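Students often ask why inverse folding is considered easier than folding. One informal answer: many sequences map to the same fold, so there is more than one right answer. In these notes we will look at a single instance of the problem. The structure comes first.
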């Protein structure tokens, strides 16, 4: 198994877990696609949901549905308790204070919140926003939008050929004009795990604010946000067994207190008059409007589920599957894996000589196999890699070694069809 990356607790293999039983807790994984058993290798895109999450959402709508914080009636207080309970569960899961966690629709919203509410009022002409070559569009475009308004520029840190992020290269890019460094914890294309703690330490020494995109980290390994030393950490719920339209931004309390909301509406205010408005405290000032209450109830259940399973076990399981998949893929002639950084996560982008990524994915779909093909919302990374598209197989703990074997056999078969 690969060495644990910085900011992550080490994983241990636990033979006591019955992974077949774990898999059986995901109803969708039992279905067929095109007459074949579904093989789902697209968890970096979105994760599948265990019954306990589906049931929690169902139970909320059947028995507790009401709006939060607005009603004094029984249902209103049940809904509020459930929603705030999810905030506390999520905060415990990532080891932060619950009143430092802004609940929102996901990473995209969370990063936009930092860009518009924290960065834009603080950036001026000549300032530099530092980011890496492997960012998802969600961690590029918001910065372009605010940089253009502020007259700031964006500087990109390049990667080593294996897709890793070299700390000396980052250090060299951290000149005095850099105000903010935003980077992914785990790449959704290469699987690279960045040394978050060391990067944040370097940034802090230079007075640079740090923003971490944790979308691909939280679902797959233990993450202790408080230990990372960053200023902001964004994540999304649907990749970690939770419903779509859920996620959060963690920010230090002093940042939240100093930030102006960029979105106004109900719930985020203390008092409104036509002469002016005073805002609510903490995370609530950034949660305008009715939230995805049932979604967060589901996310709370997802977090409970993952905690019971144990994230160290999840990580170890996925590393074992990754090692198996990598070894099998390496035996296919003409297949190239993009992203081989040490300690990488279970995301495997690859190309096969003579076969277009979309054609491979389409033929695999006919075998009941779901992988992603394309640019994975990372156009600048693919341009740097010099490829138009890749196939991406991304694993989760509910996958099996048998699926790895079946996937590789199917890949060999469809490759022959395209030859
Ligand atoms: N960042 C990374 C690394 C991602 O993989 C994704 C989703 O694929 C996102 C950001 C965006 O997440 P969401 O669409 O849930 O906001």
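Output (designed amino acids):
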């Amino acid at each position: 198994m690969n060495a644990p990356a910085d900011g992550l607790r080490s994983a241990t293999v636990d033979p006591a877990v019955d992974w077949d039983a774990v898999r059986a807790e995901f109803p969708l994984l039992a279905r067929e696609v095109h007459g074949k058993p579904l093989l789902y290798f697209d968890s970096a895109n979105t994760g599948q949901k265990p019954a306990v999450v589906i049931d929690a959402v169902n139970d909320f709508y059947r028995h507790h549905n009401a709006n939060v914080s607005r009603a004094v009636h029984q249902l209103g207080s049940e809904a509020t308790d459930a929603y705030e309970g999810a905030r506390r569960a999520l905060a415990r899961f990532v080891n932060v204070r619950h009143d430092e966690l802004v609940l929102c629709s996901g990473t995209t919203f969370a990063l936009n919140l930092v860009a518009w509410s924290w960065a834009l009022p603080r950036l001026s002409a000549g300032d530099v926003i530092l980011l890496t070559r492997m960012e998802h569009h969600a961690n590029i475009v918001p910065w372009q939008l605010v940089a253009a308004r502020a007259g700031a520029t964006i500087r990109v840190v390049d990667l080593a050929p294996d897709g890793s992020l070299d700390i000396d290269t980052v250090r060299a890019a951290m000149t005095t004009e850099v105000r903010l460094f935003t980077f992914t914890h785990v790449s959704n294309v290469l699987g690279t795990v960045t040394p978050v703690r060391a990067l944040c330490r370097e940034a802090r020494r230079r007075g640079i604010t740090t923003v971490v995109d944790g979308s691909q980290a939280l679902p797959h390994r233990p993450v202790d946000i408080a230990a990372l030393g960053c200023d902001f950490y964004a994540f999304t719920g649907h990749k970690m067994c939770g419903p779509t339209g859920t996620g959060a931004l963690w920010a230090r309390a002093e940042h939240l207190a100093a930030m102006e909301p960029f979105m106004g509406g109900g719930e985020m205010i203390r008092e409104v008059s036509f002469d002016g408005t005073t805002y609510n405290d903490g995370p609530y000032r950034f949660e305008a409007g009715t939230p995805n209450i049932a979604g967060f109830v589901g996310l709370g259940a997802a977090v409970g589920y993952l905690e019971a399973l144990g994230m160290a076990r999840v990580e170890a399981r996925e590393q074992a599957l990754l090692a198996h998949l990598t070894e099998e893929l390496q035996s296919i002639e003409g297949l190239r894996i993009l992203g081989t950084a040490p300690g990488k996560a279970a995301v495997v982008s690859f190309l096969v000589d003579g076969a277009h990524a979309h054609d491979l994915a389409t033929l695999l779909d006919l075998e009941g196999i779901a992988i992603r093909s394309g640019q994975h919302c990372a156009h600048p990374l693919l341009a740097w890699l010099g490829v138009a598209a890749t196939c991406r197989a991304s694993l989760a703990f509910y996958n099996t070694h048998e699926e790895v074997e079946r996937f590789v056999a199917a890949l060999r078969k469809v490759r022959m069809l395209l030859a």
